[in-house]
Write a structure and sequence with these properties.
- The chain has 175 residues and is mainly β.
- It has one domain (2-174): Porin (Beta Barrel).
- The chain is 9% helix and 71% strand.
- It has one helix and eight strands; from the N terminus they run αββββββββ.
- It has one helix at residues 2-16, and strands at 23-40, 46-63, 68-82, 86-103, 109-124, 127-143, 148-157, 163-174.
- Strands 1-2-3-4-5-6-7-8 form an eight-stranded antiparallel beta barrel.
- The longest helix has 15 residues, at 2-16.
Amino acid sequence: MSRRILPALAMLALTWTGSAAAGGFGGIALGRAGIDDSTTISGGGTATVDENALGWKVFGGWMFTENLGIEAGWVDLGDMNEGGVTDVETEGFFAGALGVLPIGEDSGFSLHGKVGLYLWDQDINQTNHDGIDIAWGIGAKYRVTDLIGIQLDWERYNTKLETDMVSVGITLNLE
């Protein structure tokens, strides 16, 4: 059965890439990552963090249609230190689906939502935690030219200590 589904999905993807909106993109973003969470750590203690740090990400993807694509990249959610007691550093790879809603006919504005997986590594007080969990987000983009865009995102990364990031980035459209 799966031998039939995979070629069918590949053919569907190939037909989508023929649309006028199909094309690749890449970008880089800087932002504020924040944790307001607590968790049990090894040794039976509790780590409570309410802190912010500089975060960044590099990303790329492919739009199959004007409204549907994929995105993947690397995100570093910073190094947070809660009063010298709890030290948290988080980074990892993300990949997922991207849905885009253009606003207006030729305004250059669009809204987007994304959901996917985050393969993360989080160090809490020099103890390593890692896993694969859900990441999701919403955002807006303004296409300055056919080649360059500015993007604003809010994303949630479900890790041992749940982390959010608000970022502003520059995108390069490769249609």
